[in-house]
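Listing S7. Sequence submitted for prediction.
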Amino acid sequence: MSIDEADRRRQLATCVERTGLTADELWLRYFALGGDVGPVEVDAYLHGLMTLPGIQCDVLAHAVNERLDEFDWLRRVPYSRQVRQAKPATGPLVALVDLLDGAHRAPPERLPAIAVAAGRELGVRLDIYLVDRLQRVLVPVLPDSGPELLDVDTTPAGRAFRELTTVITTHNGDRRLWTVLLDGTDRLGVLGITPADEAELRDPNLREQCRWLARLLGHLIAIADKYGDGLNAPRQRHPTDAAVELLRDMRPPLTAGTDAVAVAAGRDFGGRPGADAFDYALSETTAHLAIFDSGAETPASALVTASVLAAYRKARRDGRPLEDQARAVDEVLNTAFGPGEHASAVVAELDLVTGRLGFLSTGAARLLLVRDGRTTTLSTGTSCLESEIAVEHLRPRDWLLLHTDGMSEARDRGGRAFGPEHLGELLGKAQTTAEPPPEAVRGMLRAVFDHQHGDLRDDATVLLAAWSGPDGPRIRLEP
């Protein structure tokens, strides 16, 4: 008999004495639970004269524990193996399980209320704000959160969103902790957390538990968006057309990352028909990057861009090399729309192990390299994507920016262009200050918007990739 087994038997015998059960009463309870050895064998086991199979020891322990639960739940007989709970009774895991179970088959608009109920299991009140499509304001999705919009650039909640951090507010009776709401690394909004006791605002364990809840809720919101519109309406604060909706539904998340690379993108259409699109795909070893602009801003332009994007994706997913991906783009332009149709584009592949960058470009779309705060233009803008692949070797911590001409050629009311120099300055500053890539993208788009006083004449699209190198520290995309 092992020491553990001997100790377990002694504890069982001690607890049997505490129950006051006779040998026959104990055996009847054991037998009722499915025990299949006789009373003589049970008595012999309790006196150390023989052993029993582990499962029979556990049934006997359970019979004793049931009796102890009736008057002394603090003392229990240990089982031979860990007994798993079907569902936790207390603690932060209850909140996560309740949110996960409650979200199953729930329509999107029910998710906020389910999250609030899960928050009660943590002893906190939740307020949920989603960022609008242009990432300028945070919109409440719960009726009792108040009607006000929270500005991303000027409020504590906005700071949590911008800086991917946790912000505490304790003034004017507002005792809340704000944390960013993420789907993976893609920013969806913020979660406001109000504990019963103000001292808990600085409890690191509560903050970590609320981050778990925010991450799970972010995933569920992103999934629910695919089968319902209930959470879309609050975020859709600006008019759009079918062209914008078509290209928006084709885009990947605005932010993604692996250990070696972080990718962030953004697009400002200014309420006009859209003609820009971006795409990326990340693997353990490669980052595929692309940006497209079919030029004229008409509803038909969106169809051109959508077709180009689909052709590029199919070639990439088929495992075809970069030159074949570019050829697929040119083929769909010529066969589906005729030889007069064109699109500006940059398609690139970055080896995440070596830093080798291969790329092709055409038209007004541009590829920039940002290194140590200085910006260099890499793409030359040939007339056709089917040209020789250009190669650049990146260093760890280099950034790449793919952008359409709606960025650098944006003009104010006096006709003054935003300019590649200004764009380069913004990029260099963002890199040297270690600004998170998604916020660097948001800042660039906001600067272009402000330069044109909100009257965009062309949609502006950017795709930023930050490479940390195979052994470098991760680029920060989360708190």
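Caption to Listing S7: primary sequence and predicted structure tokens for the chain studied. The mean pLDDT is 89. Residues 239-467 form a domain with the Phosphatase 2c; domain 1 fold (CATH 3.60.40.10).
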